[in-house]
Structure formats: structure tokens, C-alpha cells
Amino acid sequence: MARLTQAAGRRLVAGVPILWLLLLFLIPFIIVFRISFSEVRLAIPPYTPLISWRHGAPSLELYGSAYSFLFTDPLYISSYLYSLKVAAVSTLCCLCIGYPMAYAIARSGAASRPVLLMLVVLPFWTSFLLRVYAWIGLLKNTGVINNALMYLGVIHHPVALLQTDFAVYIGIVYSYLPFMILPLYANLEKHDMALLEAAADLGARPLRAFLRITLPQSFAGILAGSLLVFIPAVGEYIIPTLLGRTDQLMIGRVLSDEFFENRDWPVASAVAILILLLLVMPIMLFQRLERRQLEAVK
Amino acid sequence: MSAILKMNAPTTTAAADPASAYVRIANLTKKFGDFVALDNVSLDIRRGEIFCLLGGSGSGKTTLLRTLAGFESPTAGTIHIEGADMSAIPPYERPVNMMFQSYALFPHMNVEKSEMLDIVKMGGFGARKPHQLSGGQRQRVALARALVKRPKLLLLDEPLAALDKKLREHTQFELINIQQRLGVTFIVVTHDQEEAMTLGQRLGVMNHGRIAQVGSPCDIYESPATRFVADFIGSVNMFEGRVSEAEPDGVRIECGELACALRVQRAVSCTRGATVWTAIRPEKINISRQPPAQAAGADNAVRGTVREIAYMGDLSIYLVQIESGKVMRVTLPNTTRGAERPIARQESVWLSWHGSSAVVLTE
Amino acid sequence: MKSRGLFARLALVLGLVFLYVPILSMMVFSFNNSRLVTVWDAAHSPTLKWYAALLSNGQILGAAWLSIRIALISASGAVVLGTLAGMALARFGAFRGRLLLAGMTAAPIVMPEVITGLSLLLLFVATEQLIGWPKGVGAVTITLAHITFCMAYVTVVVQSRLAGFDESLEEAAMDLGARPLQVFLRITLPLILPAIGSGWLLAFTLSWDDLVITQFVAGPGSSTLPMVIFSKVRFGVTPDVNALATIMVLIVATGIAIATVWMRYQQRRRERDLQLAAAANLSEPLQS
């Protein structure tokens, strides 16, 4: 009897969140998938139904037009490629800036470590939107950077910084840097310093010891940090909208525009499905890393 | 493996009537996926005894303990405590308590007052929180907590593993003391054979999810049932051979690894020509420069050369290479201080043993 | 070894400068008199006029109030669901639906927000068609969406806390006679309370801050603060947003400062306890 109630309790504990996520996470994706195979029409809702009644019999209506549209109009292909490029370059920059920072924190004294970590995380707790906005004030033609450079005499005319690829890289690196540093720090902090001492003892110079020992050992941290930056950066919407070019959109913006401006729900859904297809490998890789890390805690 | 370890051997053994088994484990099997943690284990525990489950990691001893506590439900088989089937009883209703290897003291609670604290000599520590206690004190509190509900059966998972060597020895005797005062039945899981032999009135040696042998410490050490048990408990010299002659008071064994004939003076149930293993404990072997009394070429005596000597203080270990090339391990107590002419490395010596010292194993 | 340590330390300093300069410049220019945001009007600055303008801006105050209410409800809902999911993942071993739950709680964390937003809106449109609910999108749909993506974070926090402490604590309680619900209330809950607290704060911040998902599932009349800010800054810089940013940074900094002092206090108490335990070790009753 007691066993039975315990089993029922467990079913309830696991069942409630599963049910919630089924309803508000999984089913929505199925709907997106299904609408991506519809055609746009002037109605409410603005797409063709999955099943229609013709001559008294139900018939399945599946259209591939949204997808063929994506592959024929070069706008979409170039947006995809541009998003991948921006995400990749930003991730690499994050890694180059974040790795030495994480390394320095991991090797600093036990007392200063929490303070430094807090300094890295603190901006994350303030508004994402406002932090991106701050860069408008810095980057625009009459902004702080141009003013300073002109005051110093380095340049005589303002340099266009805003609405460039550079501005987008800066925005993404700035906003996502903590996501790179934290997993790297968690990894580097656990390293056994005796290994480096052993390497030094065997005659390895510091750079060689770093390349042969520290770097390979921190691979999991590099991968986790890179995925945490790359995946959301591909679909990034706010940063390119506020800081980026107007002649070349990122795919997240294209999706939003298709939906809100053109009211073409099937194409917006098809764009979403293709982003997911692109990201399914990195997302699964990330989940595997997460699981392994949780098991390691055990 | 000195004599002091056996001082706790039972002097008055309870009647081994299987019908009066206090805890009866019958055909218990536990699988985790494909892994068989317990493989058809049957075991009876008597009322009021200290029973030690001894085995290496992954031998299934902890799984058996957790199944008794009710944290794991068996794949097959039953557990009866005082005749009552435990299958449907959840952990919080079993007459069983457990002392955890990690102690599992609730970090956010006080120790609180209880008469059991006095029994473990921790009376004044009721207001402390676990992290305000030393390792030895935590161990006592964990024991007291496990005894508070006056369980009929106490399960102890590596109760002394986290203590340092000195404290561990002291606590072993204290555990026995407490057990005898309260009359609770103890089942202790340990990987430490000295601890098992000190604590346990009976031992169960586990291997690959099965019980390899059950018996008193003396039984298990002196009469191991299998090669695994002989090798697992203490150290042993083992020779493969063939039964050449069955005599009324023992057997003769032809053994290629040994340059002499083996004569074992023990009742052995095996047929002529059967393959058997002979186990001889290192401390049962004599080492001498002169041929032993039974003379050269006789039974149970071989020549060899000393290859290594390890001085351990109370005893010395000699590694002697016999003529077949096999190395035998011999230990001798250092009974006198500074022997006149100690045996040295590379010296040629005779090894000999009494016919009743060897054990013949068939599996 | 020295030179590499120096390089890393230099990178750390520069990195922190990079992280804080934009925030500081926003704070400085919030006291600037000029409308031109980035040109310092030395004659009339510093001034608090943008703060005054902000506090009399009904639209921003209304949006902030809506955002706070949504964040409070979302964080609380996410904590309940996330704790349940974290418990199930960390403690139930292999159960049916485990893989599904693990996947569904991990995915929203990395999922591009535009996709989550689009899919949730399409869900609400579909349910309205099918069962007549919800009647249009608004605060309710925003809250539902926020609970969904926030609970994923709470799950991770709670799950790793549970994985970090010994499961035998709960077994010991059960061994001593506590029923599962009692075990949860008296042992598990007190132990994961810090994780639940930080999970709640994280969920609150995420909900308060979210723009992209919110834009999809919001309707007319349900503009949250990030939506109002976005529509203001999209077409140029406005000084009162600087003032708003400064206030938010100050609130967060104050909160973090209080938390740090509190943690320091706890740390010192723990160290005292350790000394006590060490002293107890010396007087161990060895020869009793």
C-alpha cells in the first residue's frame, strides 16, 4: 500500500513538469513543423488547414512551397550563411578573450576568485537590452569612441562603426562573454597543478606545458563555452537589429520580419525549422556535455 | 594475520538450526540493467550475532545491505525478518536501521539529546551541528542515530572506513561492546579483512554477487572453501596438481610446480586423477639451512634460494625461488632480537611444512 | 610561467574594462544635460532632469509595473515546476519519460528565442481556435511563456544542487521512519532551499529582461518594460533610458553587495565551526 502511494507520488512529481513541457514546448514545435507545410492565405489564421473537406471526403493538404521559396530567393540563403559567419566569428572572439580571463581567475588567489567571478557575472544580471543599447552611444558617429579619437587627433572624420559587422561582433562578444568564461573557469579551476609541475620537472617550458597539458585538458570547457555562445548567436535578434547592418539581415530577424511584417506564417515556420535543423547537432552535443557534467558532480 | 585477530572468535556458538534463522535471505537476485549485482544469494543471519559481509568493490555486498534496508527492491527472491516477509515493506516501516558509510548526518539539524548519545559517549554534544564535530564524533553520532529507534537489526556500511588507523582499532572493540550491551543483530559490510575478522562472529565472503563462503573467521582463514576465498583472505602459496593416491588419513598429490610430492593429512573428498589446488599459508612454512627431519626427497619439503627478504618488524617475509622456478612466500616471526646468523639473500634453504597445514581445494 | 601569468592577468583587466565601460558610460551620461546623449554639456551638468522625466513617464512606469508582476508570477511558477523536474531528474533514477524530460528542460536554454517565441504564439493561436482559450494574447500568455523558458534554468540549478549532496541523507531519513513527503519537507527542501532561492532570482531576472519571446506572445496593451525600451531605442538614443539603466544597475549592485556581505558572514561562521571541530578532535575520547 505504502509502495503504491510512493509510486503515485513519484509519478506526480515527474508527470507535472513533463505535461507542462509537452503542452508548452513540444507541441508548439509540432505546430510550427506542421504550419511550415501550409500555404499562406488571407484568412484567420493566415494559412491553409492541414485537412480539408473536398467532395465530402477529407484530404491531406501538404505544401512544400514555403521551403522551395526559401531555396529560390537568395535573401534567405545569404541570411543563413551570414548568421553562421557572425556566430562563428563572435564565438572565436569570445574564446580568445574569455580563455585568458578564465585562466587568470582560476589561477588567482582563493580570496579574490569569488570577487572576480562576481565581476564577470554581474553585468549578466543587468538588462541585456540596455547593455546592447549602451554600445549605440559608444559606437555611433557622434558617439564616445569617435569623439575620443577625433579629440586625440587620430582621425579627422567620424568612422562608421555602428550598423557594421564589427558592431554586431562587439555586441555579441560583449553580451555572451560570461557564458564563455563560466564553463571555462569551472573546467580550468579543477586542473591538477601537479601535472604542470611534473611537466616542468620533465623539462617542458611553460608555453609547451600549456599547449600540451592545460589546453587539451580544457577541451570540454572550450566546447561547452563555445556552444553556449554559438547556438543562441545564430538566432540572435536584438543585437543585429540595434547595432547591425540594414542591407544584410541575420536569420532571426528574417523570421521575425516574415511573421510580423509580411504575415507569412508558413515561411516564418519554415525558416524556424531550417534554423533548428542547422542547430540540432550543436544542441545535442551541448546536452551530452551537460549530462556528463551533472554525472561528474555525482 | 596474528593470533590477536582471532580473540573474538565465538566461544559459544548459537545453535545453527536453520529454522531459527533471524534474517532469512532466500534466492535473492538484483539486476541493474544487464549487470547482476546479486546472483541468487541465500543466507541466514542468527539473532544477536555480528555478521560481516566481506568482499571487494563490486562484489555485491553493499547492494545486499541496501536491499535489506529496503532502498533497492530485489529482482527475484525474498527477505524474511523474524518470519515476516519484507517484500512489500518500505524502508520507513522496516524494523531495520542503517549506519551509512558517509554517516549521512543531516547538515541542517542539531545532534539533539538522546540516551543513545550516552551509550556512544557523546552525551554533551546534543546542541552541535554535524560540521561542528570531528570525524570520530560524527561516526559516534551516526551510530547513536541508527540505534535510537531500537532496531532489531542494524546494518553498518563500512562503519570504520573513514576513521584513521588508530581510532579504527579502538572503535572496533567499542562497536562489539555496544552490540553486546544492546543485543542488536549487526550486519557489517566491509572490504577490510582484518576489520571483518575482528568484528565478525561469522563472515560471508562475497564475489561477483555470490556468497563464496560463510563461516567463522577461523574457518575461513584455515579452511577456505574455494581458491578465491583462500587468495582473498590473507596471502597463500597455491599449487595446481593431480591426486595420485588416496590414503585413509589424507591424499598424495603429484605436482609439477613443486619438486616434491605433496602429502596432505586432511580428509579430502576427491577421486584419483582429479585436478586439485593445494594452498599453504606463508606462516605455516618452515625455513631452514639444514634439510628438515623428514630428509631430502621426502614429502612436503623443497629446496630453494632466497630471492628477497622484507623486514616488517614483528615478522619477516621471505620470497624463495624453488627448483621449479616458482616463487614461494614464507613469513617468520622475529621472536628474538637480532638473530645470530640471519638467513641472507641468495642463500640456499629448505622449505618444509606439516601435512595438516595444507588445504586441498577442488574449485 | 611568469610571463604567461602576466599576459592572462592583463587580459583579465582589459576584459573587465571592456565589460564595464559601456555600463559606466551610460551611467555618466544619465547626468548629462544635453539631449545629444554622448556630448557632455559641461555648463549645465550634472543634472537629475532625466530621472525626473523618467519618473513622470506614465508609459514606462506602467510597463515596469506590468513587468514586475509578470516576473513575480513567472519566477514562482518556474520554481515550482523546475524543482519538481529537478527532483525527478536527480533522484528517480531511470524512469519512463526521463529522456523526454531531460531533453525538454535542457533545450530551451540554448534554443534561439525567436523560435521559442514563434512556436508559443502559434500554440496560443491554435488553442484559441480549438477551445476558445486564450482570448487573444496578453499578460496571461506572456506569463505562461516565461514560466516555460524560466523553469528550464531552475531545473538545472536544482538538479545540480541535488546531485551535489549525498542521496543517503534522504535514505537515512527514510530509514529512520520518515515517509516520502516528510523526507521532502524536512530533509530535501531545507537542503535545496539555497538553490531554489537562486533559481527564483535567476527566473525573475530572465522574465524581467526578456524581449524576443515576449514580443511574440504579447498583445496590444500588454507592453512590458523591455518592449517599451526597445521601441524607444530602436529609433535613436534617448537620455531617460540612460537614467533607467543607471537605476537598474544600482538596484542589482545593491542586491549583489548585500548577498556578498551575507555570504562573507556565513563563511566566517563556517570557519569558526571548523575550528571548533578541530579543537574537538584534539580532545577525542580515545582512551575511554
Largest interface: A-C, 96 and 95 residues
Give the full name of the CATH homologous superfamily of the largest domain in chain B.
P-loop containing nucleotide triphosphate hydrolases
**What share of residues of chain C is helical?**
over 70%
Inertia-based shape of chain C: globular
Number of separate domains of chain B: 2
- CATH domain class name of the domain at 74-220 in chain C: Mainly Alpha
Structural class, from helix and strand content of chain B? Answer: alpha+beta
Number of strands of chain C: 0
CATH fold category name of the domain at 74-220 in chain C: MetI-like fold
| Share of residues in strands of chain C | under 5%
Characterize the biggest β-sheet of chain C: none
The CATH C-level name of the largest domain in chain B is Alpha Beta
Order of helices and strands of chain C: HHHHHHHHHHH
Please name the fourth-level CATH homologous superfamily of the domain at 74-220 in chain C.
Answer: MetI-like
CATH fold category name of the largest domain in chain B: Rossmann fold
Architecture per CATH nomenclature, i.e. the level-2 architecture of the domain at 74-220 in chain C: Orthogonal Bundle
What is the residue-mean pLDDT of chain C, rounded to a whole number? 88
What does this structure look like?
The complex is a heterotrimer of chains A (298), B (363) and C (288). Chain A is mainly alpha-helical and 298 residues long. Chain A is built from 13 helices and two strands, in the order H-E-E-H-H-H-H-H-H-H-H-H-H-H-H. A two-stranded antiparallel sheet of chain A has the order 1-2. In chain A, helix 3 (74-106) packs across helix 7. The longest helix of chain A has 34 residues, at 2-35. Chain B is built from seven helices and 20 strands. Chain B has helices spanning 61-69, 115-119, 135-148, 165-182, 193-199, 217-222, 227-232, and strands at residues 23-32, 35-45, 50-55, 76-81, 84-85, 96-99, 153-157, 185-190, 202-207, 210-215, 237-247, 250-254, 262-264, 275-280, 286-288, 301-311, 315-322, 327-333, 348-352, 359-361. Chain B is α+β, with helices and mostly antiparallel strands. Chain B folds into two domains: 9-232, Rossmann fold; 237-361, Nucleic acid-binding proteins (OB fold (Dihydrolipoamide Acetyltransferase, E2P), Beta Barrel). Helix content of chain B is 18%, strand content 34%. Chain C is globular, with a radius of gyration of 25 Å. The termini of chain C are far apart. Chain C is mostly helical and 288 residues long. Chain C has helices spanning 2-29, 49-55, 58-91, 98-110, 113-131, 139-164, 168-175, 180-209, 212-217, 225-233, 239-282. Chain C is built from eleven helices and no strands. At the A-B interface, helix 1 of A face loops of B.
